[in-house]
């Protein structure tokens, strides 16, 4: 019985690594669309004096988050996963994640990836994001750095800070093809 429990524990422990390897295999081939949650930014929400143009009024990346973002970029390079374009929320924590990971030259602000102020805005943003995903035909990968609420609205699931979700499209819905977790 103990051997069965140990064997089951080993199989379960290996599952995230397998999912990550499947994700890297997809990214090495290019042409994928990746939703990525910004790196570590302690706290919840933004202060009452929030101004999207001023990082000092927002919740920002921690030092751990900045290191995590740099590590994400280094792993993309080490794994030969070509990045063609990076679209990012205009929030500083998302933009900083994108720039630290992939360099400023590839990063473009994409307001549809911002946190939506209400349900109507969220529906409009989802439509714009889905249109961008549908229209993507690049040979490298498209990375979209955003927030948990946007990821949940698009996929119906959650994501850890800094986690990459490789998407597949089936009809009118998105599916998670693989995940890569960056610690």
TrEMBL record:
- Supply the alphabetized keyword list: Signal
Q: Which InterPro entries match?
A: His_Pase_superF_clade-1 (IPR013078), His_PPase_superfam (IPR029033)
Q: Which domain of life is it from?
A: Bacteria
The signal sequence is: 1-19
Work out whether the entry's keyword set contains Signal. Answer: yes
This protein's name: Putative phosphohistidine phosphatase, SixA
Organism listed in the record: Nitratireductor pacificus pht-3B
């Amino acid at each position: 019985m103990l051997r069965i429990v140990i064997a089951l524990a080993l199989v379960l422990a290996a599952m995230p690594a397998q999912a990550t390897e499947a994700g890297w295999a997809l990214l090495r081939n290019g042409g994928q669309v990746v939703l990525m949650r910004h790196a570590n930014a302690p706290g919840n929400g933004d202060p009452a004096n929030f101004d999207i143009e001023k990082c000092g009024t927002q919740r920002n990346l921690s030092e751990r988050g900045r290191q995590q973002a740099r590590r994400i970029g280094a792993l993309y390079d080490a794994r030969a996963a070509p990045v063609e374009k990076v679209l990012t929320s205009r929030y500083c924590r998302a933009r900083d994640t994108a720039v630290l990971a992939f360099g400023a030259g590839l990063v473009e602000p994409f307001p549809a990836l911002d946190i939506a102020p209400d349900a109507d805005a969220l529906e409009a943003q989802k439509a714009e994001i889905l249109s961008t995903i549908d229209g993507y035909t690049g040979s490298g990968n498209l990375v979209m750095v955003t927030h948990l609420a946007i990821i949940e609205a698009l996929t119906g699931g959650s994501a850890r800070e800094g986690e990459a979700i490789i998407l597949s499209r089936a009809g009118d819905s998105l599916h998670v093809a693989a995940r890569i977790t960056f610690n």
